[in-house]
Amino acid sequence: MEKTIIINIGNTIIHIEESAYELLKAYLNEVKHYFANHADDLEIVTDIENRIAELLTEQLEEQKKQVVDAANVNFVIGQMGRVQDFDTVEADAEEEPVKHTTYQAQPTDKKLYRDMDERVIAGVCAGVAHYLDFEAKWIRLAAVLTVFLGGTGILVYALLWIIMPKAKSRIEKMEMKGEPANLQGFQKNLNEELEAVRAHLNEANKHAQPLLAQFGNFIGEFFEWLGRFISGTGKVIFKIIAIIIVIFGVLFLLGLIVGAAAFQGFWDASIYEYFPFSIINEGNRGVILFSAFIVCFIPILALVLFSIRVAFSKQAINKTLSFALLIIWLAGVATVGYQAAKISSEFKQHAELTQTTELKTLPTYIIDIDKSKYFSKEDSIAYHINANQKNQIVVDDFEDGPFVSPNNIRININKSETGTTRLIQKFESQGKTFQSALQNAQNISYTYTAKDASLIFNPRFQLRKGAIWRNQEVWLNFEVPVGTKLIIRENAYRYVNNYGTWDCADKENDSNDYSTWIMTEDGLKCVAQLKEDAIKKKKLKEELLNLELLQKNRPVDTVYQDSVSNRIREVKEELGINPEEN
Amino acid sequence: MIAENTQTQMRKGILEYCVLSIIARGEIYASDIIAELRSAKLLVVEGTLYPLLTRLKNNGLLSYNWVESTSGPPRKYYTLTEDGRGILTQLDQTWQELAYAVGISQKGANP
């Protein structure tokens, strides 16, 4: 099979094989150059072209063919004669001497083409080498070195790749190498090529590749090169990477299967008691687990399969199966999305219920936190805790682990308007409807201990068995009448919501693990702070008295008077006395 | 080299004379001129003929008519102009003189 070209010669349309076309083009070039300096060159060349068209047409008719081949062209050349033959007859008879000698002596013009036969990447270096008459290896070395000079080499290379055309035809290849584009040059080129083909007959593949690359623009070529790079130089690296991916991917897949099995309850059914999973309703767990498993499993499986393909050059899976996997994956994504939407809808409504406990009004209350877990009877049996061993305490010190749901309590300390002491427990929750939200709130289980003057809070609330996490919250409002003293243990600092408990440190006794507070009309006050303020106030008052005495001295000295009255104003401001009152 | 040069010189002059003589017999197409020259064993290639014909035409010795062709483009059919006939007459005379000169040179004036 050969590519045919349609040419217009002597106003005749002729189909011609590519190789024959190149032969003909070379011949006509030769003829044109020969007559280039002739006074009537256009007319002569036209005559010759017309005649060539006629000869070709005649031959096609005779041989009952559609397409001109190299043999036809050779016949025409034989008939018309070579330029050398023109020489012997016409040379000196011309009144206008033919200056073909000067033409041949001229250094032939080279053109910048990419050499696809000697290419490493896109033949840019080889092309430049031909143009500059260097050996390609030196150009390549220079190109590689420029890459290290800030990478400009890569940019220049890409630019040249785009700008420089490929040397596709023989004529272009000859122009690239600076061989005269005439018949001798052509023949030389053809012979060289034939020799090369004979020499590398077993490397026919390599030779055919540039032909394959004939179509395709820069991008196409780039990817083709990348493909060759992957299958060639980079093959080993890619294979190693692929094998690593396969190993880790398979391990990960196994992990996923084990994990899914664990979630399914083969080993540990209590996993749904931990936070992110406790959101999921019991009924949907299977569906969500399965679709989440698919969503994670299939992409990794695909990656592993692709890596297997890269590493072992084998198709591990056929198209139908991979398409099916894609469909399954999409279904998994859709299910997860649907379930997520469904779950988020269960946070729509809000409900809260309060429970008030009246406490004895005592002059002092101690607020503390107890981290010991209080187990119900069922739990005690489940955890094999012997109720008879009184000294056994289980401490929950797992403050903010990744699977701890947000179930910390928050304490507000307020002034009691009624003059009674009481603890109001407020349970809040979200739910799909108000009713379900309320039910979720009711599922909160919370315990505290009120013993004499001590209020010992459990830092966390629990959800009753079977309840799911719907953003449940517990607020503890502790109301005390004015004048009640509160001792807040350090443990409890972080749970007190409406006062900055950390700031109330007794400066004289820094090592205390508690702070003392008192309820005033203006809310809770830090006792240490109050003491400090009182001392400060006392000092300022003394200063004020002194200043007022000083003011009475030296009534004529205005500078002295001004400075004293300024200080009085400052002191009064600090004491909170309005200066205009006097 | 000298022989070659002389041959070339001789052929060149004679080629032009022969072409004019062929055309003088009537309107003719370039490739037919070649065929005639071939049968006369004056071996030339077609490529040689076109510059020659163009030159003769431009010197006013020849004129041509376009004739439609069944195969390929229209053909140029050449004829001799009046000037061409005049020149050919002169050339005929010159040829006879030359033939005589050659004959005499080869055989001697008085046999």
Automatic annotation (TrEMBL), chain A:
Segments traversing the membrane: 138-164, 236-267, 287-308, 320-341
Main localization category: membrane
Keyword Glycoprotein in record: no
UniProt-listed InterPro entries: Phageshock_PspC_N (IPR007168), PspC (IPR052027), PspC-rel_TM (IPR054321), PspC-rel_ToastRack (IPR054319)
Membrane topology: Single-pass membrane protein
Compartment(s) where it occurs, according to its Swiss-Prot or TrEMBL record: Cell membrane
Protein keywords: Cell membrane, Membrane, Transmembrane, Transmembrane helix
Stored Pfam families: LiaI-LiaF-TM_PspC, PspC, Toast-rack_PspC-Cterm
Record domain PspC-related transmembrane region: where: 217-347
Domain Phage shock protein PspC N-terminal: 110-167
Domain PspC-related ToastRack: 396-527
Record-given protein name: PspC domain-containing protein
Source organism per UniProt: Pedobacter rhodius
Automatic annotation (TrEMBL), chain B:
Domain (Transcription regulator PadR N-terminal): residue spans on this chain: 19-88
UniProt-listed Pfam families: PadR (PF03551)
Domain of life assignment: Bacteria
PANTHER family in the cross-refs: PADR-FAMILY TRANSCRIPTIONAL REGULATOR, TRANSCRIPTIONAL REGULATOR RV3488
Entries under InterPro entries matching the protein: Metal_resp_DNA-bind_regulator, Tscrpt_reg_PadR_N, WH-like_DNA-bd_sf, WH_DNA-bd_sf
Protein known as: PadR family transcriptional regulator
